[in-house]
Amino acid sequence: MAAANQSDNLRGDWPRRLLRTGLALVLFALMMITVIDVIGRDIFDSPLRSAYEVTGLLLMVLFFLGLPEATLQGVHITVGLIDSGLGVRARRMLDAAVCLLCAVTLGALSFYVAQKAFGSMRYGEATMFLRVPLGPFSLLAAGSIALTALILAGQFVIALRAPLPISGGADD
User: Fold this and answer.
1) pTM for the complete prediction?
2) Distance (Å, whole) CA 79 – CA 140
3) Which of 78, 116, 151, 152 sits in a 20 to 30 Å window from 129, CA-based?
């Protein structure tokens, strides 16, 4: 029975594994570009041409591929200034409100980034030296932000539907 559950889990988890593999490949590419550029600069006095442009684009890809995963995992850095003074019910409502506010904000942001992406493609914006088109990178950003907004909207619904612990103490 355990083997069947593991097989079902692997089938249903393929998008996350694919995303994590993509993140690992982008991180490896960033590492290799840096190593090649430093060795070329220090040993052969010939740096990797346009390493700065490629590094910038790959960092953008890394950030926007990682944003939905970080949101799903709940590993964003947060500051809890008022959490400790709240009860369970108030904390849950605060968490739901934060998810909703962030989902709405990111939804609007994704709309504006998508508009920028389409404008960038229409005008043919590209990097300075390699002439890599910037529109697809902006579309990736818009899609990633929109996906993160959807994840936060789902977390909002989950936070509202989760049962509260039954107690009559001061925590409520």
Assistant:
1) 0.84
2) 29
3) 116
